[in-house]
Amino acid sequence: MLRPDSTFPIVIKPYKLDISQFSPTKIRDEMKFNITNVSDEDLKVALISKPEGLFDLKLPDKVEAGKSAQGTLKLQPEAIETSFEKSFTIELSDSKATRFTVPVKRKMQNPGQADAKTTGGK
Length: 122
Prior knowledge:
It is a single chain. This protein is mainly β. It has one domain (4-118): Immunoglobulins (Immunoglobulin-like, Sandwich). The protein has one helix at 111-118, and strands at residues 10-13, 17-18, 30-37, 43-49, 55-58, 62-63, 68-75, 84-92, 99-106. Strands 2-9-8-4-6 form a five-stranded mixed sheet, with no helix packed on it. Strands 1-3-7-5 form a four-stranded antiparallel sheet, with no helix packed on it. It is elongated and about 45 Å long. Residues 112-122 have low confidence and may be disordered.
């Protein structure tokens, strides 16, 4: 199996988007990621699928040859208190119409567990 950093014609970093939240006070609802075009042609990026009701994606329209562009994943308000493991799929404009499926994980720590740890269980 190929390592995630040896994919072609793009490299997505991080290759798995982990938007887990371990602090009950600071909401983590947005994550940026990079798409690097390692080919010699400009590539258009199209969203093929994503789960409904969990997050929105802002993707670059295209990534120029040899360059990087940034994407953003933003949780929808109703998904902030949810734990899930899902993915989204993009398609490139190369001759093979290459598709990439990117895993997205969110784990919420139980606020009660955090309280027990910070107070020494008292």
